[in-house]
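User: Okay, second chain of the day. Same drill as before: sequence in, structure tokens out.
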Amino acid sequence: MTEIPPYFGKPSRKDFLRGAAITALLPLLPRISRAEAERIGVLEIAPGIFVHVGQYQLVNEANRGDISNPCCIIGSDAVAVIDTSGSFAMGSDLHTAIRKITDKPVRYVINTHMHPDHVMGNAAFKAPDVTFIGHYKLPAALAARKESYLANARRRLGEEAFRGTEIIPPTLLVQGSRDLDLGNRVLTLKSRPTAHTDNDLTIYDHPTETFFAGDLLFSGHIPTLDGSIVGWLKLIPELKLEKAARAVPGHGPKSMSWPDAIDPVERYLTVLATDVRQMIKDGKTLEEAVATAGQSERGKWALFDEHHPRNVTAAYTELEWE
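Assistant: Same drill. Structure tokens below.
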């Protein structure tokens, strides 16, 4: 179990309230050893918060869609799951791990955005008393891509991992800010303007000051652009205002210090936007941009060759109309 770090000197009122909130949770939280948590594939990053760390890979049959970071948060009354990985098989494994951690019921599944590696495990949590939550634009985004997402998943995962996989849209939609009480534990959910996608949602756990950024935060794995590069760069300074002790990336380590964790993402997007704008100004074609824009970032990100060309294409398509 994660220990509460001792205070040095006189604590502030904020420190006192945060410590009191965590102390109130402690008797209700699971007592699971670090070795056991690792054995079942999850890591505790703060009291009652567990993260499964996905691989830096493309989806394939061997990894079963295990390429993102699903999480669970345990309150005194209920559990919230944040993202469910990339297949029914992975979602089932996550659900099994949560059952070994706590006997509190899973009442909420929160999807941070539409991408398959974050939503394809939803069906493993489907039950009459489970509420699926997402950005208010998420249902439309999933409906528009449902057939292609399922066809691609079946092809990449193979039948065994894919079996049972389905698209489950949210029924509780977040527009603006919404609080969710798990019992002695309040989460604040915020819908974000178009950035990584047009349906990005962030989650903030108040007792531990943990910020779940979804794919607005990548680390090691190259950021992927499926929304607006202008919007993402505009949003980052706002995200940095979140007073978090740690952040959980959609792809990357189990947790990171905040707000400096997002600096490499901001750098990459800035380089990409600057290069593409200059090439448009110089009359270069999309093909020329794909071949040369942002190449100074090569070697700094995993899966650069797999995703960077698509990022350049998306940025060029958006920026040529400025």
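Residues 13-259 form a domain with the Metallo-beta-lactamase; Chain A fold (CATH 3.60.15.10).

User: Thanks, on to the next one.
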